[in-house]
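Record type: ASSEMBLY
Status: queued
Input:
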Amino acid sequence: MPLVPEQPPEGVEREILDLLREAWGKLVEASDKSLRAGLPFAALPIKTMILPVLREIISQLDGFRNDFVAEPELELWPRIGEYAGGRLDFEVKRVRWEEV
Amino acid sequence: MARPDPKRREAWPLYWDRRVETMPWDELVRLAEKKLRYIVSFAYHNSRFYHRHLDEAGVSPGDIRGISDLPKIPFIVKDDVRHKIQTEPIPYGLHPGLPDSYHYKIATSTGTTGRPTYNTWSPGEEAYARDIIARNFWAMMMRPGDVYLNAWRMDFNYAWGVRFYKTAWMMGMKVVPHGSTPIATMPQLTRRTIEELRPTVVGGTPSGLYHLARMMVEEWGIEPPFQVVHTAGEPLVREVRKKLQDIYNTEYVFDFFGFSEVPFTEMSEDPWFEGDHWWFDAAVFEILDPDTKEPMGPGERGELVVTSLINHTLPIIRFNVEDIAEYRLGPGGCGRTHPMFPYGVLGREEWLVKVKGLDGRFHYVLPWDVEAVVREFPEIKDYQIIKKTRLEHDKLYVRLEPKQEPRDPDEWARRFEEELSKRLGVPVKVEYAPPGTIQPPVWKKTYVVHEWKARK
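Status: finished
Output:
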């Protein structure tokens, strides 16, 4: 029995995971659509408060994955103004969970 | 004066929620009155206090069809909450409209004037409160990507600091939970935070931010990075706004008002600076004549009475907040249709000083009248009004502190006695306070010293 289960869950946990993934897909779509429709009151809370929690729960259920932090859908906006030492802007080199 | 980055206006919609912010006034009133009928009925059937309160007044929920019916219900004041409503059982007494399985966040007043009053909210109420704050933050031109220096109290059971923090986070800002205390007690931490993180938004009390501005410019010699400055907790006097705009080098210095019991009464200005927008879908208000308690209309100055359309956990119906305010109806140049308070909320009723003026008539003086004069004189560091009685005075007593010790303190005091008297139109007695006497505010400044209370 590995200390960190790498296999996706089965049974009721699998059902929960599927429901949450479905919700994730719908919420990502709702947030994007709200943003395009000029409705920040819907787009931003979904993106900043609901999606990060949902993604973290999905990752826990799905074998304690650690790749949710750098999830592209959770990227927010670059800061307004400057850092004292210059702009902090670089492309994220992603690490695939399945390959480590 | 530099206008903040124009991308704030261009990159995002003007409104956080354009449907409700620009709703035609008659629709908005219909919506508010529907919510009012609902909440009065809810409070009557669930809060033991409001059930008794309406019964004692001989009012049934069905009697309240609209805002004009509200005076049928006697108003309550903070002391009623403390001594009559939230008594037994401790801590909420007969007040709650929801069982504690719905209570989610708890806060208290500071209790400086007696037993603290308790506030508690459900998750739904907190979410609504954040939405209303976000409307205000958006109106004040805060945007995703801003770095928000949260200089509000984050301690002392205080609800707003955490609520502001969460709202800024919800809006996609990057939040620094600085709190208000370090500005007064650990200024080196504040300095380093500002220099190294370069926050673009700062929120705090006008007196606290004025103190911070003076330290940044006069003591540290650093250029303020803030593009948006939002004040609350104390009225933002127009002269202080001008000073803050100059020192912070941004025109986006805004007033924001909210009070503890109803986190749905927040209102704020926007770049049109026509007044603070009161969100009428979340709370309705009345302005009452301070003497007769009769309803007053737009443009008349009186006591602010609030009814929350959202509070279920601790319903708030006809709460006289004992603040002085006046309103006018919209829409403003921004297109928002909700009522506006052109001068924000002017201050506590107990701060009023009634003085017989040089013209023989009585004048009502608020701290902001004094502030408007003293801020024109850079040699004055701080001031306080001294109240010797509850209301009526033979002259206005003002304590003044200079930046540097003058050669002749008596002559210095006499000079400002004359200046204040001439400008305010009332006799003034200045009490000289040596430098360092009036402490910088850790939170809210003490504008008025109630000597009459100490003697009681």
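Annotation: Chain A touches chain B at residues 38-41, 44-45, 47-49, 76-84 (CB under 8 Å).
Annotation: The mean pLDDT of chain A is 89.
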